[in-house]
Amino acid sequence: MENQKKGRPTPKRKEIEKQRAIPRLAPAADKATKKLLKDEARKARVLQRAAFMRGDEAALPPRDRGPVRRYVRNYIDARRSIGEFFLPIVMVLLFFGLSPNPTIQLTAVAIMYGVAAYSVIEGVFLGRRIKSEVGARFPGTPTKGLAMYGWVRSTQIRKLRAPQPQVKRGEKV
Q: Whose CA is closest to 57, among 142, 160, 159, 166?
């Protein structure tokens, strides 16, 4: 709405809605146009998703943009981590947790907590390493949030990471 001067009567709702109204198409044309617009939107989403998964800088959300974040992703993707195997391990251990034998149940729970603790401890050391590497390669760059960013990525199953890994395991970053 435009900045109207005082002294005028308040416009009626009909008048405001009429100003906002989008011109309607004929019903047959409307269906065809809607279908065309939906198809175009779907194609645009597919292209956007493909660009995101490739790691195109323009398609990344703000939390993933920049050379520092790309370096952290590559650093994580080039190494193995217990965190990426956590979910499959937990699924197997949950199966053993259904056993009628209490010893097997207790062992499964103990292993599950052990793997979780190891993953968290590994994340702390990984965060320290990430911050020191980033400090050496990108001097003066703030490192706030990079440790958590790296640890969260390291806990994701490699094939399900988004954007997809750009480096192979063991490759020098």
A: 166
SS3 state at 31: helix
pLDDT tens for each residue of 72-126: 999 999 999 988 898 899 999 999 989 999 999 999 999 999 999 999 999 999 9
DSSP 79: S
Domain that holds residue 111: 63-160
Shared domain for 47 and 97, answered yes or no, is no
Asked whether the predicted pLDDT for residue 2 surpasses 70, the reply is no
C-alpha pair distances (Å), 57 with each of 147, 161, 166? 21, 16, 13
**pLDDT band at residue 4, thresholds of 50, 70 and 90?**
low
Is 143 a member of any domain? yes
CA distances from 167 to 75, 77, 118, 133 (A): 9, 6, 25, 17
